[in-house]
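Hi X.,

You mentioned you wanted examples for the new student's onboarding notes, showing what a folding record looks like when two proteins sit in one file. Here is a clean example. The first protein comes first, with its sequence line followed by its structure tokens.
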Amino acid sequence: MNQSEQTTSSFKAAAMTVAAAVAWIALYGNLEPLADLMLAIAGISRATHFGEALHFFIYEVPKVLLLLTAVVFVMGVVHTFVSPERTRALLSGRRIGTGNALAALLGMVTPFCSCSAVPLFIGFLQAGVPLGVTFSFLIAAPMVDGVALFLLLGTFGWQIALAYVLLGFLIAVVSGLVIERLRMEGDLEEWVQKLQKGDASAHDDRSVFTFSDRFREGLASVRSIVGKVWLFIVLGVGLGSGIHGYVPEEFMVSIMGKDAWWSVPAAVALGVPMYTNIVGVLPVAEALIGKGAAIGTVMAFMMSVIALSAPEMIILRKVLKPRLIAVFAGIVASGIVVVGFVFNLIL
């Protein structure tokens, strides 16, 4: 291809990228009204259990898929500038815990629910970021963010808000460090292991890539990764929508409304099958506290709902083997139980 053809091809790729970005922003920003419109057309009221569950599903599936597509495309383009080997060397060369802390801090400034954080988790793995560091991000992103801080501040006061954020950050960092020390890279699915290793022979000289080459690399990544995980996303969000629409608050109050020694682990066990974000779970937390539940019990419940949802596990199953999922859930759940007991002791 001569210089003129390369220029024309790059211009077309740039125009397509801009058009796709505009369409992505427009669609992502109107998912809620679109979900409302689809329910209105179908004649289904959101005030019903089925209507709320269906609205949640219609809104959440495209949201997660759009996030995944954008992240994977960007990471595919980034790969044409920086090799996975260089990324791994950059993060692996830091002092122990520094990469985990940075990833957790990044998670804290990205307001994603557990399922929405999975696309960035995959993007981290795609970039060759160490496994433990990616988990620190995955845990912190839904559990500790600016929205959580301000909502907790307004609801429970600065002491509880600050304690929640600091302990959530600590869980993310320590859990990532433990997973890193266990050396469980072999428990990533084979296609993810290939992504991490990259194809060095195909990208030795990245300086010769044109914009159209980089555009094609991004599209290839989208086809490869989104094509593998989209069904798991639909299944995971489907489960989450059912829980979101049908599990009544009264049931949670009846189970957790007592201050007993077993309330913290029970709260974590109850929270894992749930699926919502800090905004959705906060009213339940207020109701539980109003019914006499201990602060630590409620905090443990909130953390488990946000960081260990069953839909998230379903989506992660396409990326992680069952043993790694079990280790991840066990480590995080143990940390949350400890935090719950600490809250009950000091507050």
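Then the second protein repeats the pattern, sequence line and then tokens:
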Amino acid sequence: MSESKAMILGCVGAELTAEEEAFFRREKPWGFILFARNVADTPQVLRLVSDLRESVGRPDAPVFVDQEGGRVQRLRPPLAPDYPSAGALGAIHAADPAAGLRAAWLMSRLHAFDLARHGIDADCLPVLDVPVDGADDVIGKRAYAGDPAVVAAMGRAAADGLLAGGVLPVMKHMPGHGRARCDSHKALPVVEASLDVLRAVDFAPFAALADLPMAMTAHIVYQEIDPDNPATTSARVIGDIIRGEIGFDGLLMSDDVSMKALSGDFSQKARAILAAGCDVVLHCNGVMDEMAAVAAATPALAGRALERARRALDLRAGASSESEMLARAEFDALARSVA
């Protein structure tokens, strides 16, 4: 892993092109991420995942996906069932807290079954954002609840379910996307809430789960902390808040560098992300010119970032022995209670 570059990259289609294979072989990203465009059927996904790992010469290279349930789910039937949203799980919790926590754990354990059989070993879940009235719907039902304590408890259950299946959780979007009034895929949100409010609401679930192995940043300006830079490129947000107040010492990856919230060319954005204190740059869309610019600005994964990466990957070992059939039956019964 020591020669891997501090970046996670995507590819354009369901199989690697010769250009992509040569590029990955040369630039050696630390990991990869898959989207719906990369998914056709189970044998194809297994081939693609194998080819990605082969291209960097590392059979342990992590492969990520956004498999939340609800509207954000890259593997769909017949590869995986359509799962309910986090908000639907939150409704179970509102009626019966113990049942809600069990449902969150079970759904993540089922994600792990689905992902593991496709060779995928990291899921960008749980979403720990706390939505507020008037916020953009980019989070919406992707959140468990509007109460940070419930979000933290449900997020912990979800993360534990993934880990029980040997799949790494990535909590997002640190230090909180829930009050953004625009979609950071399209524009740069600015949050004007006071630091006291942010601490009590937005930061609280992340602080409660600060021991998790990986997290993804939010492309959001927090006016009270750093009015000039979004969290992803803010040394103040990452150093003082994420590493300091929240106490997170796991691997910190950026959200997608190709989102419109970030400014500059791709080399500039990658350099700014790493200079601010992120460990790894994430680029998702597979566009070769953009990936080449990111790679040109990204050094080898080294030092504390490499230690964090190794520590995270060590947690993939050994899935627990639950029966998938029984877990599905139990989860389906809980899900029907709020259908």
